[in-house]
From TrEMBL:
<dbReference type="GO" id="GO:0004791">
    <property type="term" value="F:thioredoxin-disulfide reductase (NADPH) activity"/>
</dbReference>
<dbReference type="InterPro" id="IPR036188">
    <property type="entry name" value="FAD/NAD-bd_sf"/>
</dbReference>
<protein>
    <submittedName>
        <fullName>Thioredoxin-disulfide reductase</fullName>
        <ecNumber>1.8.1.9</ecNumber>
    </submittedName>
</protein>
<dbReference type="Pfam" id="PF07992">
    <property type="entry name" value="Pyr_redox_2"/>
</dbReference>
<feature type="domain" description="FAD/NAD(P)-binding">
    <location>
        <begin position="13"/>
        <end position="321"/>
    </location>
</feature>
<keyword id="KW-0560">Oxidoreductase</keyword>
<keyword id="KW-0285">Flavoprotein</keyword>
<dbReference type="InterPro" id="IPR050097">
    <property type="entry name" value="Ferredoxin-NADP_redctase_2"/>
</dbReference>
<dbReference type="InterPro" id="IPR023753">
    <property type="entry name" value="FAD/NAD-binding_dom"/>
</dbReference>
<keyword id="KW-0614">Plasmid</keyword>
Length: 347
């Protein structure tokens, strides 16, 4: 924790949960509005973009920009205007009373008048050997982001739901061949998406198969992958129970995980904040029916992937980060006016 950060004493105007691109964008806007935001960096300082090398679709960088560089620049920019960063991870939030109270994993407590939740959604990982080393180096969780790096490659997509079909169809525009690796013989995907993938001449399926290990290096990228198969499906589980399984190492230039994302919202359990069945936050519309970033709890705003199961891009996360800060600023102004009026009426 930043030694100068006194997380217990004052009531903050705004605390931002998360230091991914959504949290950073919110921090720049909130700091420029003199709200002196405190940014809790959480378990993954800098967020998902720190897992990738080149970002080629973020506006303003014609040659692309490194994920780390983009994040470090964002942090520097926010600090320049007075945002404060600390390594806190929120474990519990009490939102029924004002100011809101947050409990951090180290036991510290924080009080704040407004809150921006920008805690992201983590892509699920398979658990294959070497995935930590090769994530961002030929292994990815985002075809829209990294597909274009795989022109002419043979690639694998791991998963059997709609998002795996979507990733495969997108990758088929660039790759020589796309193989969907699924641990069962039946897809979870909707019929229409499954048919589209099945009908595509460059997409193949490996049924009853799982990814066991990735091979390659950060210099070369992913070069091959070991697949494990069993005629009754769930081969890794079968192998762990001592069954005979087939193993094959195939040459590939890229591997994409498409087994879903988990929004980081467990710390909001038990609060009045509305979430969908997967845990993504709902935000409300204003009186004119237009989208805002405010959640179902007044004064709590959401930005980035944590409220967006559909787009999940750096630029959309940054966009909603700025919106959340602007909504927060307006909320605090209204709160201040209400408090002043209450004071005038009953000093
Ligand atoms: C390998 C990879 C490559 C990608 N490439 C691209 C690309 O080229 N272009 C593109 O547009 N997008 C890309 N993306 C997607 C992009 O990274 C995400 O859309 C973006 O990072 C979402 O930003 P976010 O701030 O909403 O969430 P995140 O980046 O996920 O950040 C979440 C933050 O919340 C913090 N946090 C979580 N829980 C808590 C808690 N309890 N308390 C406090 N803090 C918490 C985390 O520590 C983290 O700092 C890529 C993603 C991956 C994984």
């Amino acid at each position: 924790m930043n030694e100068e950060t006194d997380t217990t004493a004052d009531v903050r105007d705004v605390v931002i949960i998360g230091s991914g691109i959504a949290g950073l964008s919110a921090a720049v806007y909130a700091a420029r509005a003199d709200l002196e935001p405190l940014v809790l960096e959480g378990p993954e300082p800098g967020g998902q973009l720190t897992l990738t090398t080149d970002v080629e679709n973020y506006l303003g960088f014609p040659e692309g920009v490194g994920g780390m560089e983009l994040i470090q620049n964002g942090k520097d920019q926010a600090e320049r205007f007075g945002a404060e960063f600390t390594h806190g991870t929120v474990e519990n939030a009490t939102l029924e009373e004002r100011p809101f109270e947050l409990e951090l994993s180290n036991g510290d407590r924080l009080r704040t008048r407004a809150l921006i939740v920008a805690s992201g959604a983590s892509a699920r990982w398979v658990g294959a050997e070497n995935e930590d080393e090769l994530m961002g180096y030929g292994l990815s969780t985002c075809a829209t982001c990294d597909g274009a790096f795989h022109r002419g490659d043979d690639v694998l997509v791991i998963g059997g739901g709609d998002s795996a079909m979507e990733e495969a169809l997108f990758l088929a525009k660039f790759a020589d061949s796309v193989t969907i690796v699924h641990r069962r013989e039946e897809l979870r995907a909707s019929e229409i998406m499954a048919d589209r993938a099945r009908d595509h001449e460059d997409i193949e399926f490996r049924w009853n198969t799982e990814l066991e290990a990735l091979h390659g290096s950060q210099e070369e990228g992913v070069t091959s992958a070991t697949l494990v198969s069993h005629p009754d499906g769930y081969p890794s589980e079968k192998a762990a129970n001592g069954a005979d399984v087939d193993r094959e190492t195939v040459e590939v230039g890229g591997v994409f995980y498409a087994i879903g994302h988990t929004p980081n919202t467990e710390f909001l359990e038990g609060t009045a904040i509305d979430r969908d069945e997967r845990g993504y936050l709902y935000t409300r519309t204003d009186d004119a029916g237009r989208a805002t970033t405010e959640t179902m709890v007044e004064g709590v705003f959401a930005a980035g992937d944590v409220a967006d199961p559909n787009y999940q891009q750096a630029i959309t996360a940054a966009g909603t980060g700025s919106m959340a800060a602007l909504d927060t600023e307006a909320y605090l102004e209204t709160l201040e006016r209400t408090e002043e009026t209450a004071y005038e009426v009953s000093p």
